[in-house]
Design a protein that fits this description.
This protein is an all-beta fold. The protein contains no helices and 6 strands.
Length: 86
């Protein structure tokens, strides 16, 4: 899916799947507990399943996310942020 994000997302992890981020526009920081990975347009990063992370976008970022259909964006359906389909 292609998404637009801005601001800080919650710390979370996905126990069953990796989290694939590919930046189309803007700059995205992916905070991990031991470091921060900064992605610019054309760069990608895969957060391995089970690793806590928090995406942070100071300005609007356009991303391609690849994950299995129905995967909650926080890894837990009870705490998932609402998705807006356009």
């Amino acid at each position: 899916m292609v998404v637009k994000v801005k601001g800080e997302f919650v710390w979370h992890k996905h126990d069953e799947t990796d989290d694939f981020f590919f930046v189309l526009q803007g700059v995205l920081d992916i905070q991990l507990r031991d470091r921060t990975v900064t992605l610019r347009p054309g760069e990608l990063f895969i957060v391995p399943k089970g690793v806590e992370h928090r995406p942070v976008a100071q300005e609007e970022v356009h991303l391609l996310l690849i994950e299995p259909t129905g995967t909650p964006n926080t890894g837990d359906a009870k705490t998932a942020a609402p998705r807006k389909t356009i």
